[in-house]
Each structure stands twice: as structure tokens, then as C-alpha cells.
Amino acid sequence: MATDIRDAATEDKGKPAKRKRTGPVLFIRQVVGELRKVIWPTRKELITYTIVSLVFVLVMIGIVSLLDWGLQEAIFALFT
Questions:
Q1: What are the Cα distances from residue 34, in Å, to 22, 24, 30?
Q2: With contact defined as beta carbons under 8 Å apart, do 25 and 33 qualify?
Q3: pTM of the model
Q4: Residue 17 phi, psi (nearest 5)
Q5: Over 90: is that where the pLDDT of 4 sits?
Q6: Residues 63, 70: contact at Cβ < 8 Å?
Q7: Residue 54 in contact with residue 47, Cβ under 8 Å?
Q8: What pLDDT digit, counting tens, does each position of 31-79 carry?
Q9: Distance CA 57, CA 62 (A)
Q10: Contacts of 17 (CB under 8 A, 6+ apart)
């Protein structure tokens, strides 16, 4: 069970163990290491993702605009 395995420092009165702060050089090294793991999209994939995102945003703008206009017309019809 996961709760059976605990660090010796965390068992001491339920307080978490103090961790040593990461220095700026180690931090930058870790960031670069993580960025090397990233699978960057190709130019074609990037263009495709951008176009799909823009089309989705335009469709959502259209839907929200139509709903806004329809509700506005309904309120005006109700109160005039």
C-alpha cells in the first residue's frame, strides 16, 4: 500500500521534510533537459493546428453571436 512507504523525515510529527532549494544553474539544466524531451510539431502540423484552432474560434464566435442576437430579439419582442 502506498501509505505504508514513507520517508523517515515525514514520519516526524506529520511535518513534511525540508528540501534543499534548487539553484539557478541546476534549474536551467533541468529546463533544458525537459525541453529536449518535447516532441516539437513539424511546420505542416503547426499550420494545420493553427488553421483548425482559428476555424474553431470562428465557429464559436458565430454560435455565440447568433445566440446573443436571438436572445436580444426575444427580449425586445417581449418588452415592446
A1: 16, 15, 6
A2: no
A3: 0.56
A4: -70, 145
A5: no
A6: no
A7: no
A8: 999 999 999 999 999 999 999 999 999 999 999 999 999 999 999 999 9
A9: 9
A10: 7, 9, 10
